[in-house]
């Protein structure tokens, strides 16, 4: 289907199904039960899953295929965000032009950075991209304040021109980001017994873009172009000796992944029209590297899983404070309760980074292929029980 | 090769399943759900109502944020009838009787803004979408407060601003769903000018170091307006990044600039660092233009004084409130001692002004709900607009309807020379009465925005 092999088609269909059903799948616990704490099916977080999924998919096209480790991808995310907000301010509150311009601006920006950075490879390339990204962050934070509004963040205001939308609403409230009239914040709430599910318009817009991005990634992975990128990774020298110039390929991969990051930035502001300089900081660049490695670099689905896991931990684990812990363990005798709460305390709430760090170490040591490798190992175990080990096929990737 | 087997049974099965699937949503839009929709976002269900407290727990303003959270917890206790009732006893309205709100017990969720607009909005969104918060309060940075206020306006919940001092919060960026109890830089300027004139005279050269975001810009502008009106000259203004940690490179040029006053438009951890470094570099023992070099910190707090230690002695600034105010200036500031008493009993030290403003905001919101008889944000906003009250520690106070800003006395303070204990670091110098602190609605520094109309959301 759509030029995909049977295996890829199945994977693609599974991803589509998961994305469509996510509002239900991510809310497995009734809304007034104690476990509702772990529900992730609210629009803000689901949108983040998809947006950072796109970001990581794009990053993986560069890092997973060519092996070039960029530490500056957040710069494209930020550039895309600022471009998106400016489109909202100048042109129209329709998200489509904002997202398209975000992709374009991030693309142009990545041509510039990529052209310079790709003259080096390995650690030098990483440092160059990191330097560019930190430079962009510093510019956005203080020097370019008229364009970026610095620390306060670029926001909509009532006196923006918005050429296509005409005069602002008469009641003086700020206009809302929409897709040809469908407001991004519109949600349909469905209560089913103790459960409640939220189907959000903005989420499904992100879903469309994420599925599109995923499809493009599959096609790139399976194309001759993808093969060339893998050749860059496996042995660049040999590639040059056969008369191929690797630089156009790496630059193309860099720009494509920069545009994916721009798309993610554009979607972020479409969901919540504010862009802050922190989006360009190196921690954000590091985050996407973590996502990709955690999920499984060079695999199709890995980066999406990694992005989901990190965003889930960030939003759910960080909300578990001491009060919540005391509630959970209130059935225990007082002394024991306090001991257990003290033991868990460093790993939740503000300390969620510690949990993430431990998890990352475990994955890198025991599953260098990331979560995807973990899944394959489990699948192989199950299959071995059923069938003759000789028939086990080598998994793709 | 694909093989398709259409059997009658298969077709019927698929058809039935599809039909059931399509009909599903209509079943669930029945009675249960329609009751949940009462015309506004997060209408409380069951016997509890949830407040969302969004404060910085990490970053440059974390000290203030944690104190705000303590105050919120205390307010929730008092609303539910636990503890000694605090300022509920002295509050001029007597609607809150410790039985929760409109028969519902008050619960709360908290989030970390990280002193960062992006993170603050994400945290506020998750409180509104996931936890069903009916109002959001907190924020220790004007950038964050403005960003979250905009979000609450869009989502249709009330935002009770915590510690935010920029003019823009109730000026250019004011919103119909947002309310501010704290004072602003215009009021600080009005309060400080006469004190600065009396102590330092009319012929001074000022050097400004300013936190590079909305509050810093606003503070610098107000200070320049009022000091230049005195006849002071502004030598230079330098913007510094928030959370910089090390300000030495910004402070070194001050001594050679020809200035004789350093105005530190910094707050929280930044102010502690920049003031400490300025003192270490010997600025205060310097002579410039034949006068003693001096430092001014327009926005002061007890927490910062504690952080800066001896360096803050004799330095002037302004405050929204101080925990000693009722003891020093008497009954006009009733409520102060009741609040200090219950805060001190629970936590073992007196509250900061950040804690007081957040406590007051939670109580004011709760009172407005009871007076309105509804959690509907528009009804609550109407109850708060033009509301005149007393007994929350600041003396008689008005919530002005036109810009949702509170007007009350402003406290001018200075670092105490001989503190009696570790909490007695700030000395009240003067009070600027409410009438002097009040500025007209059409003040030029507050233009460029409008409240818009109240948004109840869903």
Layout of helices and strands:
The complex is a heterodimer of chains A (397) and B (458).
Chain A: H1 6-25, H2 43-66, H3 74-90, H4 95-117, H5 122-143, H6 145-148, E1 154-155, E2 178-179, E3 182-183, E4 187-192, E5 195-200, H7 201-222, H8 224-234, H9 236-241, H10 246-271, E6 274-275, H11 282-295, H12 302-316, H13 322-328, H14 334-344, H15 352-366, H16 370-386
Chain B: H1 8-28, H2 31-36, E1 48-55, H3 62-79, E2 105-112, H4 117-129, E3 135-138, H5 142-155, E4 158-161, E5 178-180, H6 185-200, E6 205-211, H7 214-230, E7 233-240, H8 248-251, E8 261-265, H9 268-280, E9 287-288, E10 291-292, E11 294-299, H10 302-308, E12 316-319, H11 325-329, H12 336-347, H13 353-372, H14 377-384, E13 387-389, E14 397-399, E15 406-407, E16 410-415, E17 426-432, H15 434-437
Parallel strand pairs in B: 1-2, 1-3, 3-4, 4-5, 6-7, 6-8, 8-11, 11-12
Antiparallel strand pairs in B: 9-10, 12-16, 13-14, 14-15, 16-17
């Amino acid at each position: 289907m759509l030029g995909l092999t049977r295996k890829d088609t199945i994977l693609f269909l599974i991803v589509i199904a998961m994305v469509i059903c996510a509002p239900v799948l991510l809310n497995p616990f009734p809304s007034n039960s104690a476990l509702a704490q772990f529900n992730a099916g609210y629009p803000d977080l689901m949108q983040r899953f998809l947006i950072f999924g796109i970001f990581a998919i794009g990053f993986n096209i560069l890092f997973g295929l060519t092996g070039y480790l960029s530490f500056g991808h957040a710069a494209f995310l930020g550039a895309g965000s600022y471009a998106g907000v400016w489109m909202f301010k100048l042109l129209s509150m329709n998200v489509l032009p904002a997202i398209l311009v975000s992709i374009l601006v991030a693309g142009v920006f990545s041509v510039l950075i990529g052209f310079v950075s790709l003259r080096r490879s390995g650690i030098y390339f990483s440092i160059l991209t990191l330097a560019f990204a930190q430079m962009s962050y510093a510019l956005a934070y203080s020097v370019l304040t008229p364009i970026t509004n610095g620390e306060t963040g670029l926001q909509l205001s009532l006196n923006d021109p918005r050429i296509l939308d005409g005069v602002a609403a008469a009641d003086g409230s700020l206009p809302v980001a929409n897709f040809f009239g469908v407001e991004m914040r519109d949600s349909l709430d469905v209560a089913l017994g103790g459960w409640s599910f939220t189907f959000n318009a903005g989420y499904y817009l992100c879903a469309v873009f994420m599925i599109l991005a995923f499809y493009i990634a599959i096609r790139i992975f399976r194309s001759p172009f993808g093969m060339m990128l893998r050749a860059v990774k496996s042995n660049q020298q040999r590639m040059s000796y056969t008369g191929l110039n690797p630089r156009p390929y790496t630059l193309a991969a860099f720009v494509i992944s920069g545009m994916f990051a721009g798309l993610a930035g554009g979607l972020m502001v479409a969901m919540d029209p504010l862009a802050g300089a922190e989006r360009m900081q190196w921690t954000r660049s590091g985050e996407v590297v973590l996502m990709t490695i955690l999920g499984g670099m060079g695999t199709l689905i890995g980066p999406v899983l990694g992005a989901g896991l990190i965003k889930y931990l960030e939003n759910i684990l960080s909300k578990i404070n001491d009060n919540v812990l005391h509630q959970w363990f209130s059935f225990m005798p007082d002394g024991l309760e306090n001991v257990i709460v003290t033991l868990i305390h460093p790993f939740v709430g503000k300390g969620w980074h510690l949990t993430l760090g431990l998890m990352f170490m475990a994955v890198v040591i025991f599953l260098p292929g990331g979560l995807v490798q973990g899944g394959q190992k489990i699948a192989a175990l199950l299959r071995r029980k059923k069938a003759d080990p000789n028939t086990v096929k080598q998994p793709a990737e | 090769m694909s093989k398709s087997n259409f059997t009658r049974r298969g077709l019927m099965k698929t058809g039935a399943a599809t039909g059931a699937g399509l009909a599903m949503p209509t079943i669930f839009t029945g009675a249960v759900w329609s009751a949940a929709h009462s015309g506004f976002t997060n209408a409380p269900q069951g016997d509890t109502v949830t407040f969302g407290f969004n404060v910085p727990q990490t970053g440059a303003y974390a000290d203030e944020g944690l104190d705000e959270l303590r105050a919120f917890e205390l307010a929730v206790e008092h609303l539910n009838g636990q503890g000694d009732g605090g300022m509920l006893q002295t509050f001029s309205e007597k609607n809150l009787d410790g039985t929760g709100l409109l028969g519902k017990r008050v619960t709360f969720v908290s989030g970390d803004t990280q002193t960062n607009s992006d993170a603050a909005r994400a945290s506020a969104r998750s409180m509104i979408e996931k936890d069903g918060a009916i109002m959001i309060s907190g924020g220790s940075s004007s950038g964050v407060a403005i960003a979250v206020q905009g979000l609450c306006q869009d989502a249709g919940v009330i935002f009770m601003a915590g510690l935010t001092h920029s003019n823009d919060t109730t000026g250019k960026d004011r919103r119909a769903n947002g309310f501010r109890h704290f004072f602003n830089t215009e009021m600080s300027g009005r309060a400080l000018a006469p004190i600065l004139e009396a102590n330092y005279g009319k012929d001074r050269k000022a050097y400004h170091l300013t936190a590079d975001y909305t509050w810093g810009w606003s503070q610098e502008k107000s200070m320049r307006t009022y000091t230049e009106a005195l006849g002071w000259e502004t030598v230079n203004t330098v913007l510094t990044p928030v959370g910089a940690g090390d300000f030495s490179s910004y402070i070194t040029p001050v001594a050679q600039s020809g200035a004789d006053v350093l105005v530190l438009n910094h707050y929280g951890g930044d102010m502690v660092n920049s003031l400490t470094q300025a003192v270490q570099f010997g600025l205060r023992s310097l002579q410039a233009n034949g006068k003693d070099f001096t430092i001014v910190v327009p926005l002061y707090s007890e927490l910062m004084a504690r952080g800066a230690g001896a360096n803050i002695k004799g330095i002037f600034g302004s405050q929204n409130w101080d925990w000693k105010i009722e003891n020093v200036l008497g009954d006009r500031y009733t409520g102060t001692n009741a609040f200090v008493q219950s805060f001190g009993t629970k936590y073992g030290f007196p509250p900061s002004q950040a804690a007081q403003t957040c406590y007051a905001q939670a109580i004011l919101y709760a009172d407005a709900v009871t007076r309105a008889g509804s959690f509907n944000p528009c009804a609550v906003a109407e109850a708060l607009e033009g509301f005149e009250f007393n007994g929350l520690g600041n003396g008689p106070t008005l919530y002005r309807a036109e810009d949702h800003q509170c007007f009350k006395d402003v406290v001018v303070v200075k670092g105490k020379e001989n503190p009696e204990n570790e909490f007695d670091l700030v000395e009240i110098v003067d009070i600027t009465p409410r009438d002097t602190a009040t500025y007209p609605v059409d003040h030029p520094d507050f233009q460029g925005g409008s409240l818009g109309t109240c948004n109840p959301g869903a």
